[in-house]
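Usage example:
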Amino acid sequence: MDLDVIEALVEPADTKIVLLVMDGLGGLAGAESGKTALEAARTPHLDKLAAQGICGLHESVRAGITPGSGPAHLALFGYDPLRYQVGRGVLAALGIGFDLQQGDVAARGNFCTVDEEGRIADRRAGRIPTSENEELCGLLRQIELPDVEVFVETVKEYRLLLVLRGEGLSGAIEDTDPQEVGEKPLDPEPRTTEAQHTADLVREFVRQAGEILSGREPANMVLLRGFSKRPSWPRFPDVFGLRAGAVAAYPMYRGVAKLVGMDVLESGSELEEEFATVERHWEGYDFYFLHAKHMDSAGEDGNMDEKVARIEEVDALVPRLLDLEPDVLVVTGDHSTPVRMRYHSWHPVPTLLWSEYCRRDDVSTFGETACLHGGLGPRFPATDLMPLALAHARRLRKFGA
Amino acid sequence: MDLDVIEALVEPADTKIVLLVMDGLGGLAGAESGKTALEAARTPHLDKLAAQGICGLHESVRAGITPGSGPAHLALFGYDPLRYQVGRGVLAALGIGFDLQQGDVAARGNFCTVDEEGRIADRRAGRIPTSENEELCGLLRQIELPDVEVFVETVKEYRLLLVLRGEGLSGAIEDTDPQEVGEKPLDPEPRTTEAQHTADLVREFVRQAGEILSGREPANMVLLRGFSKRPSWPRFPDVFGLRAGAVAAYPMYRGVAKLVGMDVLESGSELEEEFATVERHWEGYDFYFLHAKHMDSAGEDGNMDEKVARIEEVDALVPRLLDLEPDVLVVTGDHSTPVRMRYHSWHPVPTLLWSEYCRRDDVSTFGETACLHGGLGPRFPATDLMPLALAHARRLRKFGA
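Running the assembly step on the lines above writes:
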């Protein structure tokens, strides 16, 4: 559904909506226990909300597609991730909290190793440590280009971010990374006539980078890909008529929230501090995006006990939200991160929506199997959540007479 | 799905389909009973159909969107209401059973009160009674415009319908209703060059209306909005290959049926008379749309006992339909009207489809919670119903070889 269909129906109200995202919430049952982390966790508060609310499992992108964190959050915010795609450069900027401005061109970079003939020997320069990356980025900051500011930022290990800031820049530049060992780095080809100027700047950046890194080991060159600009999308507060505040400990999630126009609220990074931030700002906003990270990390570490403990930690804080008396509370994850896969997965994500106006289903605990029988359905599009939250908050007019 | 996909697959058969729409059927559980009106009602016949058939809950427009009666019925007839949108003027005409013809331009109007400076003091003229509206419409029928017929019809209280009939008219006219007290009525601006002529006619109508009503209290002016023409859509009988008859006591529902090309069957307005009308015409049609209104009115009145009684009244008449031996019987609502909301809502609508060729699910009673576990799913698009009804009536060919 187009966002403008919703925007046309939005009407003001003084109701409040909280979206609590438990990162990587979904899982697969352990072989012995037969339970997922969420099912194994003791979650009396979430269970009560599930019993009083309506449940289901959502898919962020489409059936079978494992979402990255960016697309998964965009879907929860109501933006179809197939339609609202973010370039890799922009995602890299969001991921490290770089304050990307309208008009900036960002690219994701790798430090790599090239041989004497300039052919790529290792696309990741032996996965150099982050500390060495930082040193090299320091060197590359010497690079000067005519009429543009150049930012070179460490992401992690061999990965870096390049941002060019200036007038008339374009993101329509082909990758210089051939993604193939034995090839030479590619020339940054412009995809449009307008992009010729930017391509020339990038070529000059790469030339100077090669000079500066020449003779070093193992990182003696850079590869760039995913040139992109910050997109001009409909803003979340405009589309949904909600003053929106985002609370997240990790830069990536703050970045995606900022990308759609939410205010990022200053917060300590401990979970309890995040909840306190929502409390502190309860008067100022209509919508709160509250992000809890550690389920996902535990899943990626393959640590079932840790994932269970992190879920229980969130559950214990849920009464703090209820004390604020939100009109609508949505609890879900952005994607699944099953412990035995140690990675994001495509499995639908448990979701509960709680409000006075819910039509209750007969789900009485919050877990993957229980949610299969919920009123939201076993595989519903994550983009349905925002319209549903608005409806339950009495913020949508009737469509047609 | 595009209608032409279905149209291409339709094949003739001598089977009959009945669509029984119980207006405002869906509800929310009462706080004490824990049951919706449908769940509280004694419905042995509907329960038996649910047990023998396949059940689920549909959404007319999209998740979270509360449909008006027009869009909700279009969805049941297989027309995606986001794609097939009707202007407010056309809806007003349908609502009072005005026989709108191709090329007519209709607008919804309000009698209003303006002060000495012509500024709007009350957009609804103190909600004058319908009898006064009728008197005023009589006066406005004096208005003559060059080369067009002018129709001025009472809708209800302060609401009226204006229709212009003639050659070369356009619906691309901006509202004259600023929807704001203290403003003057707006000039009817044409949105296209072609609409200039119609805008001039509307301006002259408004001028004469102001003269005629001048000095009256409280209704001394008219405001117009939603200028629109009857749309040229694919006709239901052509798309689905069904001779279709509609039986409805209220003009709005007859109007929507007529809009898609169904025959409106003359009928008494009592529920029993509506069922008798279907019986009387059983030889003449392949598809019957039978509309029962009073669940919705009871819901809007906040009267749970009445809503329960009205549902039981329909249930008691169901055997009359079964005696006709339809091949497919679909029973559903157009939208939910929960007693405790006293208004249309977005909650999915209980649905049963009964036919010899149903794959039964394990739903054994007709109710909101029971339907969650049905084979049609807990939130399926209402536009799926027509293709499903056709399939069960053996009226759809195989797609592809």
